[in-house]
Design a protein that fits this description.
By secondary structure, the chain is mainly alpha-helical. The chain is built from 3 helices and no strands. Helix 1 packs antiparallel against helix 2.
Length: 71
């Protein structure tokens, strides 16, 4: 091959021993939206939740931190 291998980092949407990055981001966005009242944080939170909503509905037990924000 004459091209370098692509490096891909898998992002696990499910919580394990370490919470999923999207879950931590969603928690932080929820906090910022509440504390500052700035709608941009709520908008980003809504987008973050929307990106995992189908998976969340199918496997909420694997996404407990995100589920706690959503429900």
């Amino acid at each position: 091959d004459d091209h370098p291998s692509l490096i891909v980092r898998f992002k696990d949407p499910l919580d394990g021993a370490i919470p999923a990055g999207a879950a931590v981001a969603a928690e932080n966005l929820a906090y910022l939206a509440k504390v500052t009242g700035d709608a941009k944080y709520q908008t980003k939170l809504d987008q973050t939740i929307a990106s995992v909503r189908i998976l969340l509905r199918r496997s909420a037990s694997g996404m407990t931190r995100t589920a706690a924000i959503e429900f």
